């Protein structure tokens, strides 16, 4: 059976490669995963959560370049290893003071501190107070939000949030859906009736309303969102798996496992699941896209990921009022990111459906 599975997998991969839309989606998803993993090494602002606030430069337009005086922080900093930076970023060792000009006067650095458009203030710093290279220039390619944080950096770090929510939500939904759907389809009888009753009850509750209820019960936060989204998406999986198991359980090789005295659990795990994996993979890709949208919606409404974590939905919430002003990119950038990533998962899901001939199996 393993050789047959390998051959069918190879045939599915060949069909998938011919689907340009699916390959494009796979490339976008692969790039997003790389960006999420190495986010703090890619982002211009590699401080934790890209949360470097510089209030004086709030609401800057895309492409703005500013000069900053790097003033040392008094607190000592321990050396941060590679994995610490990979997971949490790097603590800023300096305060970034926006300036319009600077001069050296002996041991002092004289600067014109930028306060607002057309308003500056003269300040002096001793060389021991500033970095070895006191002045640096930073370009904000997508502008800054109202707190002066770099939008591009928060967009990059936010990729990690969206993919994490999608991944964990899919793992939770697939796990619950596979178990309940398999039990309902294989055992049937009262077990099937009870599980289907429970599924229909959950199915009748609007998704967002159910997510709100779970979120309010568990509280607001990072992990709570993962669990809430995952617990609302298993119903589709369970219904699909139940239908697949009902069809497969009557086939001869399943009858043979019962005749040989194999347990129901072994028959389901070893012989049924490998043969219904195609539809499950397709619905997993669809659920991944749905999870990203639900998380963004929850964060926009204020019950999802909490500040200062840079969720794309939260970024839209913080900056949507700029859409009708002269700087709409602050809200449009995370909106485009959500759209592109969701489209990529939908294209991949459609390609997997065609490659695995899922319509033939379920129809």
TrEMBL record:
<feature type="transmembrane region" description="Helical">
    <location>
        <begin position="222"/>
        <end position="241"/>
    </location>
</feature>
<protein>
    <submittedName>
        <fullName>ABC transporter permease</fullName>
    </submittedName>
</protein>
<feature type="transmembrane region" description="Helical">
    <location>
        <begin position="21"/>
        <end position="43"/>
    </location>
</feature>
<feature type="transmembrane region" description="Helical">
    <location>
        <begin position="329"/>
        <end position="349"/>
    </location>
</feature>
<keyword id="KW-1003">Cell membrane</keyword>
<keyword id="KW-0472">Membrane</keyword>
<dbReference type="InterPro" id="IPR050366">
    <property type="entry name" value="BP-dependent_transpt_permease"/>
</dbReference>
<dbReference type="InterPro" id="IPR025966">
    <property type="entry name" value="OppC_N"/>
</dbReference>
<dbReference type="InterPro" id="IPR035906">
    <property type="entry name" value="MetI-like_sf"/>
</dbReference>
<keyword id="KW-0812">Transmembrane</keyword>
<keyword id="KW-1133">Transmembrane helix</keyword>
<comment type="similarity">
    <text>Belongs to the binding-protein-dependent transport system permease family.</text>
</comment>
<feature type="transmembrane region" description="Helical">
    <location>
        <begin position="194"/>
        <end position="216"/>
    </location>
</feature>
<dbReference type="Pfam" id="PF12911">
    <property type="entry name" value="OppC_N"/>
</dbReference>
<feature type="domain" description="ABC transmembrane type-1">
    <location>
        <begin position="159"/>
        <end position="349"/>
    </location>
</feature>
<feature type="transmembrane region" description="Helical">
    <location>
        <begin position="161"/>
        <end position="187"/>
    </location>
</feature>
<dbReference type="InterPro" id="IPR000515">
    <property type="entry name" value="MetI-like"/>
</dbReference>
<feature type="transmembrane region" description="Helical">
    <location>
        <begin position="276"/>
        <end position="305"/>
    </location>
</feature>
<dbReference type="Pfam" id="PF00528">
    <property type="entry name" value="BPD_transp_1"/>
</dbReference>
<keyword id="KW-0813">Transport</keyword>
